[in-house]
Design goal:
This protein is an alpha+beta fold. Helix content is 29%, strand content 31%. The protein has 2 domains: 18-191, Murine Class I Major Histocompatibility Complex, H2-DB, Chain A, domain 1 (2-Layer Sandwich), CATH 3.30.500.10; 199-308, Immunoglobulin-like (Sandwich). Pfam families: C1-set, MHC_I.
Length: 342
């Protein structure tokens, strides 16, 4: 089986005091065994619905949505997404031609959604990506599109020629999307507003390996993992991993400190994990170096999360990671409204 690597799109994660609704649409070129088109919907980073071009049906993924929305809701979602399927499949081919690509696996992806904060403020975003890179993004304030590369300028001009596309997205983000966030949070209040502190472990393969600070089982998703050296903040030689979902709906995250054993012995390093109002600190005395002594819950949780991420990745939840922010290019003189053509 050929593999498709799809990375996380956007840095819009729901933290304490924030509720979010996001949708990921992903079309994949035909040189793969995976569905050619998928849609995944998430509330507060947890998947609540799913659709793909093989099953051709929108299905619930949480008990709270099953209990509160009936057949009419799922029939409407199914019909809308069936309509989007061909549009996004066509988009892949259009962009392959535009980038002069005839072979290989390629992806055309959209992420859109909104966030509602406790203070009443909101955010909204529509972002499109091609082959794991930024393509075009909606500037909601100016109701224009920002192109990330020369090929995207063509789409920018095409969509801006029909201002109604961006206007429709803006209205959705500022009104409809926020209304649905409130509705969904009301449906799943007991689940979505629970608070669970993380379990934290310092893991090391052997005494000469890097040390990983692993926080797991926490909810909501907002967690801060930092390192200290002799009582001072330390951010050098640190690799912070992505936020990952666990099978039970909680989250996990890792941060690895890449220093040698001599550096550890000469200095007092500690990992500090902050979640909600709780702070957990782990020091050298807490390091687990013998693999067999790692608590089984940590092993099972980590493996389950990796498996879940792989599965979610191929259905479109993991799209691409914008590490440095969206970088526009200037439009020179020389493409969800699923009807928007690339």
């Amino acid at each position: 089986m050929r593999s498709v690597v799809l990375l996380l799109l956007g840095a819009h994660l729901a933290y304490a005091g924030t509720h979010s609704l996001r949708y990921f649409y992903t079309a994949v070129s035909r040189d793969t065994d995976f569905p050619e088109y998928t849609t995944v919907g998430l509330v507060d980073e947890g998947q609540f619905m799913y659709f793909d071009s093989k099953i051709m049906k929108a299905v619930p993924k949480t008990e709270w949505i099953r209990q509160n929305e009936g057949a009419a809701y799922w029939d409407r979602e199914t019909q809308n997404l069936i309509g989007a399927t061909q549009t996004y499949k066509d988009g892949v081919q259009i962009l392959k031609d535009r980038f002069n690509q005839s072979k290989g696996v390629h992806t055309w992806q959209m992420m859109y959604g909104c966030e509602l904060n406790d203070d009443g403020t909101t955010q909204g975003y529509f972002q499109f990506g091609y082959d794991g890179e930024d393509f075009v993004s909606l500037d909601k304030n100016t109701v224009t599109w920002t192109a990330a590369n020369p090929q995207a300028v063509i789409t920018k001009h095409k969509w801006e020629a029909n201002r109604a596309i961006a206007e429709q997205y803006k209205v959705y983000l500022e009104n409809t999307c926020i209304e649905w966030v409130k509705k969904y949070v009301g449906y799943g209040k007991d689940t979505l507003e629970r608070k669970v502190s993380p379990q934290v472990s310092l893991l090391q393969k052997d005494p000469s390996s890097p040390v990983t600070c692993h926080a797991t089982g926490f909810y909501p998703s907002g967690v801060k993992i930092s390192w200290m050296k002799n009582g001072q903040d330390h951010d050098e030689d640190v690799d912070l991993g992505e936020l990952l979902p666990n099978e039970d709906g909680s989250f996990q995250r890792m941060s690895t400190l890449n220093v040698g054993p001599d550096e550890w012995k000469k200095n007092g390093f500690s990992c500090v994990v902050e979640h909600q109002d709780k702070t957990i600190r782990k020091t050298e005395d807490d390091i687990i170096t013998n693999f067999d002594s790692v608590p089984i819950a940590v092993i099972v949780g980590a493996v389950a999360a990796v498996v879940l991420v792989i599965v979610i990745g191929v259905v479109g939840y993991l799209v691409y990671q914008r590490k440095k922010g969206f970088k526009p290019v200037s439009a020179s003189d020389d493409g969800s409204n699923s009807s928007a053509r690339t």
